[in-house]
């Protein structure tokens, strides 16, 4: 590789910036356990990402009042870095009616996953009528 090419590539950031793409996550829950006998849960999901061994809150969904099967309108948009394992933790809370803080919320559960492993991209082909199948 020539020095001129390397210099141009470095000045454009072709080698220093990691390869990334945007990923959108949409969340739904089914059959949330109702711990309060008087009312249904008011669920909210908090998205945490692990960084240097610490869990950091990235964002959270809206609170959906009195619902055991919420579908959230909040869309999480994350940077996905290829060849880098990104650990995510989704925490589910029942937010008390008068409060939106997590200190007074009931913790209902969590799930962890990685954004950088067991991921498949399937190409989608469109076929016209009368065209041969692949």
Question: How is the secondary structure organized here?
Answer:
Elements lengths: L2 H10 L7 E9 L14 E9 L2 E7 L10 E11 L5 E8 L11 E9 L20
Question: How would you summarize what this structure contains?
Answer:
The protein has 134 residues and is mainly beta. Helix content is 7%, strand content 40%.
Structure description:
With 134 residues, the protein is mainly beta. The protein has a single domain, classed as Immunoglobulin-like. It has 1 helix and 6 strands, in the order αββββββ. The strands form 2 sheets. The protein has a 4-stranded antiparallel beta sheet with strand order 3-2-5-6, with no helix packed on it. It has a two-stranded antiparallel ribbon with strand order 1-4. β2 and β3 form a beta hairpin.
Which structural traits does this protein have?
single chain; calcium-dependent phospholipid binding; mainly beta; Immunoglobulin-like; 134 residues; two-stranded antiparallel ribbon
């Amino acid at each position: 590789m020539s020095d001129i090419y390397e210099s141009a590539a470095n000045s454009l950031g072709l080698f220093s910036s990691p390869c990334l793409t945007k990923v959108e996550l949409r969340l739904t829950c089914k059959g949330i356990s109702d711990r309060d006998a008087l009312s249904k849960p008011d669920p909210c999901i908090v998205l945490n990402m692990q960084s240097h061994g610490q869990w950091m809150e990235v964002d959270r969904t809206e609170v959906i009042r009195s619902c055991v099967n919420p579908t959230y309108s909040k869309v999480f948009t994350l940077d996905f870095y290829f060849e880098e394992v990104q650990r995510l933790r989704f925490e589910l809370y029942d937010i008390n009616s008068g409060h939106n803080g997590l200190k007074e919320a009931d913790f209902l559960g969590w799930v962890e996953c990685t954004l950088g492993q067991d991921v498949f991209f399937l190409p989608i082909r469109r076929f016209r009528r009368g065209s041969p199948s692949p």
